[in-house]
Amino acid sequence: MYTIWKENGEEVTKLEPQNKPMFWGYRRADGRVGVRNHVLILPTITCATQAAHQITQLVQGTVSFIHQHGCAQVGGDYEQTFRTYVGMGVNPNVYGVVVLGLGCETHQGWKVADEIAKSGKPVELVSIQDHGGTLMAIAQGAKIAARMVQEASAVMREPFDFSELIVGTECGGSDACSGLSANPAVGVVSDMIVDAGGTAILAETTELIGAEHLLANRAVDEKTAKRVYEVIQQMESRALMMGVDIRTGNPSPGNVEGGLSSLEEKSLGAANKSGSRPLQELIDYAQHPSKKGLVWMDTPGHDIEQLTGMVAGGAQVVLFTSGRGTPTGSPIAPVIKISTNTPMFEKMGDNMDLNAGTVIDGTESIHEVGQRIFDEIASVCSGKLTKSEILKQNDFGIWRIGPTF
Amino acid sequence: MEPNYKTVMMKPYDKVATALMDIPAGATVEVTCLDKTYTVTLADAIRFGHKFAVVPIAKGEDIVKYGEVIGIATRDIAAGEHVHVHNLEGKRGRGDKVGTAE
């Protein structure tokens, strides 16, 4: 990346232009690369979320999140929540984890801690019941967190290429411009990431109904193609079980008014985010991809649940397109929010990072916007803060697939 | 002189383009995507976000946008005509046509 030579008896260092796109990240014990260096206070149960929040108030460099999960869950629903907790802890954007439990909950803190510890990163368990109440647990957790934060701060960023990245893609609050500007631009970026040896996650199964055959046709094998139809069918049958037709009014009168003529046209706008590369595999919610390239994670369309699933699945950074504007962010992963139109970008500058509305304005091509997003990924992954990080938008929500008992 | 109407065509082999502003009937627009350029005179007024044909589309033919099929033509459509629910029919998610979907 740079050359050193002697010139007139003086040592000269010169930066060379990069052949490969790269970023400055943190290498973790399990080999994965983080783009942030957080100490995560991970509450495995609702009852511990307030204490976890208190620790983040005491110790700089820690993050946490409020949620309502972790008890009286069974079967596949228990597993999915467990996998999500572990995935958040294992995500390479996290240096170390203080798992904070109550003590009696179904999602036992020690089980989550043991699983995260397999990644080789520092993990410690604090239990409110075992440590003699909230204040003692906060004190204990804060002491551990303070030590971890100092250790974390001594880790230096190193250069890595994009093959180390898992990039989540998402759209929320879509408008008539979504399928024309921001989503195809993200599709260009998705291809660039795949071509650079990295991984791009497509998700939002609900919003791919009607475009599933296109993704199935791009599947690398029969098994993946079959799974595409399975997850679409499962998503639809969930709606049927509730006695509602998910397709009723889709495209909606507003969509038709805006020029969308069919369900597939609407879904294609969303599917655009996947670019054009082959679909390598279809993974479960909050599951880590086993392959590089384009992967599809089975998630609902709900912005926060989707985001949480992708980050728990190992995404270090997320691209989020919006036509209406949204504040969404993750406690541990930067979310780059991309506006589909210029007026919204100007109105919601607090929340939106990039503007793809230039495609609509005619001042930039989709490929130019794609390149701009790609360059922003390199900056953000090297430390540049996104709007949602600056505004402490620590959103977290698990896709629950069973009732609470 | 014709005003410079803004339109977009997503893929060079698309059969429709999308208006990026309200465009009156009779206007002549130039549509470009990569190496492909069409000059189309609009038969209908096309509102922002709506589509028009850039090539003639025969009844029963697939209509392509984003380089993908978004439905079929329910009647012959001339270049420059508005393409929407009145002459385009979705092929997917058609509970009323179970068994005939692809």
From TrEMBL, chain B:
InterPro entries to which the protein is assigned, alphabetical: SAF, SAF_UxaA/GarD, UxaA_altronate/galactarate_dh
GO biological process, one term: D-galacturonate catabolic process
Pfam families in alphabetical order: SAF (PF08666)
Domain SAF span(s) in chain numbering: 14-89
This protein's record includes keyword Cell membrane: no
Keyword check for Lyase: yes
Coiled coil location: none
Domain of life (superkingdom): Bacteria
UniProtKB keywords: Lyase
GO molecular function: lyase activity
Protein name (database record): D-galactarate dehydratase
Lineage per the UniProt record: Bacteria, Bacillati, Bacillota, Bacilli, Bacillales
